[in-house]
Amino acid sequence: MFMTAVSTATGQIDSSELGNVLVHEHVFVVGEEFRENYQDDWDEDAKVADAVRDLTELKALGIDTILDPTVLGLGRYIPRIKRIAEQIDLNIIVATGVYTYNEIPFQFHYTGPGLLFDTEEPLVNYFVKDLTKGIADTGVQAAFLKCAIEEQGLTPGVERVMRAVGQASAQTGAPITVHTNPHTESGLVAQRVLAEEGADLTKVVIGHSGDSTDLDYLMKIADAGSILGMDRFGLDVLLPFDDRVNTVAELAKRGYADRMALAHDASCFIDWFDPEAKAQAVPNWNFRHISEDVLPALRERGVSDADITTMLVDVPRRYFE
Q1: What is the pTM of this model?
Q2: So what's the pLDDT on residue 3?
Q3: Residue list for the binding site
Q4: What letter would DSSP give residue 113?
Q5: Cα angle vertex 19, ends 232, 179, to 5°?
């Protein structure tokens, strides 16, 4: 069987060693600039220890690898990720890209094709460097790309990032994850733009597809070759548990298990919410939920172990191969 090397936070592994994969989890979502200036109670050692505990627990539940799409705009800080990864048996695969719903970051606002400082697209160069040479001086290479399109749609900033991601993927063969809003069918927009830039749609996860029960829309995405990110289990405020599970079960029944991947979009720490309020509002939004609750519920609804293995093992492996 064809195999390929996949970069992780602790070095390269063979794609055959990925095991059971959750395709969209964050270790930390932290605004580093805000943290440095205003988070007086930040305890780096304690936060790292908590992450090591949570990810060790996840490994014990049978998950071998997580994909962490924390990029510019979400507080990517690889030295911390590397420090955690060195203390656990679970693989952390990191990303490059930019997360924005609207404007491009000001570092790129005036520099690029046709802008005040007219240069080739700097985003492509940064993304390709992260994928092929490594991120800063960490020795860690990104293994996939990330961009976003939300309810605001294809704003000029969102489009510029997305086209740069598509170009970087076409140059390197690296796969892509897109944060989408399925209720505006923005996954179809992302597929169009990425394909125009030469990206292989079979190597694209259309993220947050699991927030929708619209089977026609979801099958359109899958029929174009992309992977449906059923990746927000536990965020029951956005779509209830039964709706999420029933949608995956129905798609599996229709033969789409080979175009679905699972995750929570959870994190060890996120500074968007007060931790206690978050725990009360979304008590199941944690790394344990799929192993403990979702997989048994899928089996109860007739999803076979073979289909579960397809979603957890085969689809993520194919994504990189």
Answers
A1: 0.97
A2: 74
A3: 24, 26, 146, 179, 208, 265
A4: T
A5: 30
